[in-house]
């Protein structure tokens, strides 16, 4: 039932009822959570942000699931990136050393090669995902509005029993 | 659009629920069972924790009872403790590390019995223990549970091999008559083989000479030459011409004889040389006989005994058993304290933790700085106190070895002091465990379980001072054992059945105190044991005496029988050689006389021809003179 509700929330969100920022923000924050392995401190902070900010929670779950799969696939590239950042850039070494000596920073597991690579990837990917999804949502919502108002086929579909069933299903 | 969610209260509620869940998790036994599972894996035996509790406000924890099963004796606990309370340090906990500052344990018991098996793998049912508790190990007492093989860090076979090396002497054999004839049959005599070889070689020598003389045909050649010489017709020599012809024939015969003589002389020289070697025929016989006698003595198992043998013979197996037990404790400690093995390549998404320089030492993943132990053992009579410092999973991060200091006091004024050091930092692999007991009554200590062994079956040292220490440094093994008992009783199996048994019993009856010193050395794979005791001299002296007498008697018997056997075979070969030697010498002599006969014939004919030639010349001269006279008469005027 949880997944049906989630799906319903997702479709509901895509319809014009929610602001694109809510949709893109929920998905992007969930994407950030799913990208990072385990439950380090920053994941908890992002989860709190998801709960605090008025973003779509269903899409956050969807984003986390997609990002987890995405992260697993990209691991062979992400892990060397993190290793390079931690060991290959001399300029960053004093920062890492200072952070390593602080127990709180260690809770972020920043010294793990995969975690560091994921953090770097998230810094780039999450804004990209946010802006891309926001643009897409805007276009989709405009297109959906136009289609439902003007297209004959949509009128037929909306009048059908099947649509009625899905409409009830999706709330 | 509203940026913030108005229902943020939900967030607080969620955290509240999370907090409640955490409390439920800790109080419901989930964590307790998780820790039990983890520790069960670590010890490879069942671990039970009763009433584990946490206080997340002061990071305190505790339990009412802990039982760690013994993998090697599943019906016993390796350690059992009563309640314990401890606190975890917050700062390392934030780094995901558990550092316990001080853990106080009460009512500790070792080797306590279990109602259920601690085995986590399917194994044959174990024999239930027969006593309530076992004091710290120092010597195997009959009051202790049935001995089971402890886990050995060194291969068990190495200890078995060492036990097998313990000198043994079959004193029963001294009472039996040695069957020399049987031993000769069993081992065979080198001397008889030697005599047979001699006979073969001499047979071959004479055979070769027979063939050589036959092939040379000297006897025929001498006879033919003599016939040729005898055919010279001395009567036919009437003039110089016939004399010259006879001399030419004789000259040819002389040349032939010279050749035959030369051949014969060479052959004769070699024959005399070979015959001369017959004098040395039996040169190596005595040495072979002595070798045979030595080998037969060995087969008769008449070994010698020295002071080292005596101590090892009596106490060796029992002391090895003690070292083996301590070795088992070291192996257990090694399993618990040793550092983690090298990490394998991380799985996907796991990554590698990069280490950076630390401003202060990084705490290990798991560390108990100190375990204070205080209480009585489960027998309720032995008081136990002490501490274990620095139990950790990362010895290098901790930077110090784990140390152990325990002290027990028994009801009969005996005290045990146990010290241990386990150092598994990088480039270190040192483990040391030492037991020192004062005024200890060890009870009845078993020495052997062999039937018909005249040595004491057990002994009972009282008020003993005992030291037992074992150290392993990398592959090097080092151990010490010392037992000083001012009063001791020896126990024998049955009444002595022979004189040797009586002597042994009398020796031990006179012994009032025992002082044993031993050293274990060598390597894990090849340990060695050296033992000395105050009974060595007297025991070895008395046993040596018996052995010496028996050895001398058996040696005489062996020598007599071997000599008789050898002389008989030697005489047969001597007769054979003599016959062959006489035959060869006879043939050589015959050839020599043929040679002489021919030489004499040549000389005789030479003279005869010369004589004939001289008288023939005078006759011719006379005839010529008469002819001349007749001619002159006819010419008379």
Describe the protein in words.
The complex is a heterodimer of chains A (171) and B (637). By secondary structure, chain A is mostly helical. In chain A, helix 2 (20-35) packs antiparallel against helix 7, helix 4 (57-88) runs antiparallel to helix 7 and helix 7 (113-150) crosses helix 8 (152-159). The mean pLDDT of chain A is 84. Chain A is built from 9 helices and no strands. Chain A has one domain (2-7, 19-170). Chain B has a domain at 183-297 and 553-634. Chain B has 13 helices and 20 strands. The A-B interface holds A 19, 21-22, 37, 48, 51-54, 71-72, 75, 79, 82-83, 86-87, 93, 96-97, 100-101, 103-104, 106-107, 109, 111-117 and B 1-5, 8, 10-11, 14, 91, 94-96, 348-360.
Tags for this entry?
heterodimer, A: about 170 residues, mainly alpha, B: about 625 residues, alpha+beta, 4-stranded antiparallel beta sheet, 13 helices, about 20% strand, elongated
- What summary fits the major beta sheet of chain B? 13 strands, mixed
Q: How would you characterize the largest beta sheet of chain A?
A: none
Task: Give the helix proportion of chain A (percent range).
Answer: over 70%
Mean pLDDT of chain B: 78
How many strand segments of chain A?
0
What fraction of residues of chain A sit in β-strands? under 5%
Q: What is the global morphology of chain A?
A: elongated
Q: What is the number of helical segments of chain A per DSSP (H or I, 4+ residues)?
A: 9
Q: What Rg of chain B, in angstroms, do the CA atoms define?
A: 51 Å
What is the first-to-last residue Cα distance of chain B? 207 Å
Give the SSE string of chain A.
HHHHHHHHH
SS-derived structural category of chain B: alpha+beta
Query: Which residues of chain B sit in consecutive blocks of at least 5 with pLDDT less than 50?
Result: 123-153
Secondary-structure content class of chain A? mainly alpha
């Amino acid at each position: 039932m949880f997944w049906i509700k989630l799906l319903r929330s997702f479709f509901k969100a895509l319809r014009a009822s929610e602001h694109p920022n809510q949709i893109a923000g929920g998905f992007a924050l969930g994407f950030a959570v799913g990208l990072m392995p385990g439950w380090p401190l920053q994941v908890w902070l992002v989860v709190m942000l998801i709960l605090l900010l008025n973003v779509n929670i269903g899409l956050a779950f969807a984003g986390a699931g997609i990002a987890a799969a995405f992260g697993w696939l990209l691991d062979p590239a992400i892990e060397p990136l993190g290793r390079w950042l931690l060991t290959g850039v001399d300029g960053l070494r004093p920062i890492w050393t200072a952070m390593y000596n602080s127990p709180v920073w260690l809770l972020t597991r920043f010294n793990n090669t995969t975690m560091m690579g994921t953090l770097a990837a998230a810094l780039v990917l999450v804004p990209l995902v946010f802006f891309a999804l926001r643009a897409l949502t805007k276009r989709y919502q405009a297109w959906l509005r136009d289609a439902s108002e003007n297209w004959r086929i949509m009128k037929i579909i909306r009048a059908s029993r099947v649509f009625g069933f899905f409409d009830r299903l999706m709330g | 659009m509203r940026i913030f969610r108005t229902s943020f209260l939900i967030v607080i509620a969620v955290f509240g629920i999370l907090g409640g869940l955490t409390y439920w998790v800790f109080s419901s036994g989930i964590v307790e069972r998780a820790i039990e599972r983890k520790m069960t894996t670590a010890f490879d035996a069942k671990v039970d924790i009763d009433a584990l509790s946490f206080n997340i406000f002061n990071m305190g924890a505790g339990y009412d009872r802990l039982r760690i099963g013994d993998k090697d004796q599943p019906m016993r606990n390796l350690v059992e403790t009563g309640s314990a309370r401890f606190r975890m340090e917050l700062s390392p906990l934030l780094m995901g590390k558990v550092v316990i500052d001080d853990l106080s344990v009460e009512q500790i018991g070792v080797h306590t019995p279990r109602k259920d098996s601690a085995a986590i793998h399917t194994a044959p049912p174990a024999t239930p223990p027969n006593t309530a508790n076992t004091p710290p190990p120092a010597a195997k007492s009959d009051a202790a549970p049935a001995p089971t093989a402890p886990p050995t860090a060194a291969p068990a076979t190495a200890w078995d091999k060492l036990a097998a090396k313990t000198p043994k002497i079959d004193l029963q054999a001294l009472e039996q008559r040695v069957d020399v004839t049987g031993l000769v049959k069993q081992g065979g005599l080198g001397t008889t083989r030697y005599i047979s070889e001699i006979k073969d070689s001499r047979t071959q020598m004479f055979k070769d000479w027979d063939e050589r003389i036959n092939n040379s045909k000297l006897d025929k050649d001498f006879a033919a030459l003599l016939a040729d010489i005898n055919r010279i017709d001395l009567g036919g020599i009437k003039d110089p011409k016939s004399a010259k012809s006879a001399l030419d024939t004789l000259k040819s015969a002389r040349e032939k004889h010279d050749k035959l003589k030369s051949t014969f002389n060479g052959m004769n020289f070699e024959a005399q040389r070979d015959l001369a070697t017959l004098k040395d025929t039996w040169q190596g016989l005595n040495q072979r006989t002595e070798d045979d006698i030595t080998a037969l003595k060995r087969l008769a198992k008449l070994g010698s005994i020295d002071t080292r043998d005596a101590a090892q013979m009596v106490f060796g197996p029992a002391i090895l058993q003690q070292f083996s037990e301590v070795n088992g404790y070291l192996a257990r400690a090694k399993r618990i304290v040793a550092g983690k093995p090298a990490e394998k390549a991380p799985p996907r998404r796991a990554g590698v933790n990069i280490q950076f320089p630390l401003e202060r030492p990084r705490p290990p993943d798991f560390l108990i700085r100190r375990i204070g132990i205080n209480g009585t053992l489960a027998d309720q009579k032995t008081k136990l106190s002490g501490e274990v410092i620095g139990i950790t999973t990362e010895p290098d991060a901790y930077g110090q070895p784990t140390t152990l200091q325990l002290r027990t006091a028994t009801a009969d004024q005996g005290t045990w002091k146990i010290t241990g050091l386990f150092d598994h930092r990088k480039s270190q692999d040192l483990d040391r465990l030492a037991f020192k007991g004062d005024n200890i009554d060890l009870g009845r200590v078993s020495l052997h379980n062999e039937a018909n062994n005249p040595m004491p079956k057990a002994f009972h040292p009282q008020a003993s001072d005992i030291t037992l220490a074992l150290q392993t440094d990398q592959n090097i093994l080092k151990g010490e054992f010392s037992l000083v008992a001012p009063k001791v009783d020896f126990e024998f199996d049955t009444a002595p059945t022979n004189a040797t048994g009586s002597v042994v019993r009398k020796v031990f009856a006179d012994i009032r105190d025992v002082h044993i010193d031993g050293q274990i050395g060598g390597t894990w794979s090849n340990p060695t044991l050296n033992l000395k005791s105050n009974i060595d001299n007297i025991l070895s002296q008395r046993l040596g005496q018996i052995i010496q007498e028996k050895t001398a008697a058996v040696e005489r018997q062996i020598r007599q029988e071997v000599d008789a056997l050898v002389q008989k075979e030697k005489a047969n070969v001597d007769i054979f050689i003599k016959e062959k030697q006489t035959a060869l010498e006879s043939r050589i002599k015959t050839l020599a006389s043929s040679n002489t006969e021919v030489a004499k014939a040549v000389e005789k004919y030479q003279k005869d021809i010369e004589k004939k030639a001289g008288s023939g010349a005078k006759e011719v001269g006379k005839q010529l003179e008469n002819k001349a006279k007749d001619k002159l008469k006819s010419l008379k005027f």
